[in-house]
Amino acid sequence: MTDALLVLTTHPDAEGAEALARTLVDERLAACVNVLPRMTSIYTWEGTAQRGEEHQLFIKTRAAAFDPLKARLCELHPYDVPELIAVPVTHGLAAYLNWIDESTT
Predict the structure, then answer these.
(1) 19-34: average pLDDT
(2) Exposure letters 38-73 (e unless 16+ CB within 10 A, then b)
(3) What domains sit in the chain, N to C, each tagged with a CATH number?
(4) Positive or negative: CA dihedral 63, 99, 58, 70
(5) Residues 8 and 83: beta-carbon distance below 8 Å
(6) Which has the closest alpha carbon to 68: 23, 17, 29, 32?
(7) Burial of 4: CB neighbours in 10 Å, binned 0-12, 13-18, 19+
(8) Which residue in 42, 54, 73, 82 has a CA-CA distance of 20 to 30 Å to 33?
């Protein structure tokens, strides 16, 4: 077992997604953030079906950094309620998981 987490969020534009990723890595809240190309999201917001273009972010961190990462993400994110889902990493390459630990505070 590891305390590594894969945290998911979305962002409405590429530049903002990259800036958010850079901040999380620079502040050592994440070891790495992958910013995926634009995608279409279909969702319900305030009772109405919506369609939007977004970028998915895969944030690699550890459980101990989750609360400060969450606070920073909510501070910087343009959405009132950003996607923020953390998935525990139960298995992985030991060297990679160690790198996540060493790269985050």
Answers:
(1) 98
(2) eeeeeeeeeeeeeeeebbbbbbbbbeebbebbbebb
(3) 4-103 (3.30.70.120)
(4) positive
(5) yes
(6) 29
(7) buried
(8) 42
Are 64 and 2 in contact by the 8 Å Cβ rule? The answer is no
State the Cα–Cα distance between residues 7 and 2, nearest whole angstrom. 15
Whole-number average pLDDT of the chain: 97
Is a pLDDT exceeding 70 seen at residue 1?
Answer: no
Please answer whether residues 38 and 55 qualify as being in contact, where contact means their C-beta atoms are separated by less than 8 angstroms: yes
